[in-house]
Amino acid sequence: MTQQKTILRALAGETLPTPPIWMMRQAGRYLPEYKATRAQAGDFLSLCYNPELAAEVTLQPIRRYGFDAAILFADILLLPQALGADLWFVTGEGPRLSTITTADELAQLKPLDAIHDTLNPVYETVKILSQELPKETTLIGFAGAPWTVATYMIAGKGTPDQGPAHALLRENRPVFEGIIDRITDGTIAYLSKQIEAGAEVVKLFDSWAGSLADQDFIDFSVNPMQRIIAALKAAHPGIPVIAFPRGAGTRNVGMHAATGADCIALDDGVDAAWAAEHVQIHGCVQGNLKSSHMVTGGADLVAETRRICAAFSKGPHIFNLGHGITPDASPDNVQLMIDTVRGG
Ligand code: CP3
């Protein structure tokens, strides 16, 4: 059957005259309508677990801009919470979790079949979205990759260098590996349910992959993602997967084959012309405009957008930012980026 949705066509390896486009964190605080719904929900987690309101904020950027994909509104830290970690968000600072660093704490995590009690509202959001999205819009589900999720579970918060997770890996490798394995199994179960509820693509965010060196990068970024992708594709044949090993740099070369992902999302640290030659030759790529252009706009935004589109024009490409859009971005700059991608 011929695939109609542009994102699915790009993920299947097709080179399109105009790349499909969506944006990481496209539902977020740069949009006044997001802030209004967020205020209605109360706090961020209440919004994540309210299917009607989570679906509403997912739809807002689709209504405003007509992006080619919607990404489920949720967070990578809902899975640790479902596994039994306490989770809360401190305004202006970010997430906080109860820490897991010992064999006892690992043993106290909930069994896998119990995670859905917490995560059911997320699947409900996916179901609402698969009914309400325009027929040309692709619905993307997601989870954090095990290493990135583990860095938050071990430190209890975001850390600039992921020091606590690296320390546990050195000091107690069995417990560290146990945490990675538990997250890997949980992610397979979580994403399978998202797919069953209607997600048409799933994305794995390994936001801190760049801090893993050498064999650790293979063992704890590449291999867990490979295991998740293989399990998902065995259970849901044909499900396309996007992997985002942020900070991987030249290690993005060969990543399609190593992970089994259909698309590699590129951060803004890799040059598009280089990536076209060394990464895109192996499959679809997504990226990689610097998010700061959404704040500064103007001629630089237009020139950079055109440069990236031109560099990736000879292969399958999904236009996106290199990382999430920031709260200080201007909604008008997002429109300018879209007009540039679609209008030349
Ligand atoms: O892309 C999307 O629009 C989908 C929804 C989404 C969110 N977080 C919503 C969110 C996705 C895919 C994420 C992923 C996520 N969450 C990552 C990986 C991607 C990345 O950015 O590297 C990480 C590391 C997290 C953990 C997390 N969640 C942090 C560190 C924070 C605080 C950031 C901040 O700026 O305050 C969050 C909160 C969060 N997740 C917000 C949103 C829209 C802001 C919450 C708010 O409304 O106050």
UniProtKB/TrEMBL annotation:
| Record bears the keyword Cytoplasm | yes
| Residues at which substrate binds | 25-29, 75, 152, 207, 323
InterPro entries for the chain: UROD/MetE-like_sf (IPR038071), Uroporphyrinogen_deCO2ase_HemE (IPR006361), Uroporphyrinogen_deCOase (IPR000257)
What this protein catalyses is: uroporphyrinogen III + 4 H(+) = coproporphyrinogen III + 4 CO2
What GO terms describe the biological role, i.e. biological process, of this protein?
protoporphyrinogen IX biosynthetic process from glutamate
Gene3D superfamilies this protein is in? 3.20.20.210
Q: What are the EC numbers?
A: 4.1.1.37
Its localization reads: Cytoplasm
Site positions (Transition state stabilizer)? 75
- What family is it from? Belongs to the uroporphyrinogen decarboxylase family.
Q: What does this protein do?
A: Catalyzes the decarboxylation of four acetate groups of uroporphyrinogen-III to yield coproporphyrinogen-III.
What NCBIfam families does the database record attribute to this sequence?
A: hemE
Give the multimer and partner information: Homodimer.
Descriptive protein name: Uroporphyrinogen decarboxylase
Origin organism is Yoonia tamlensis
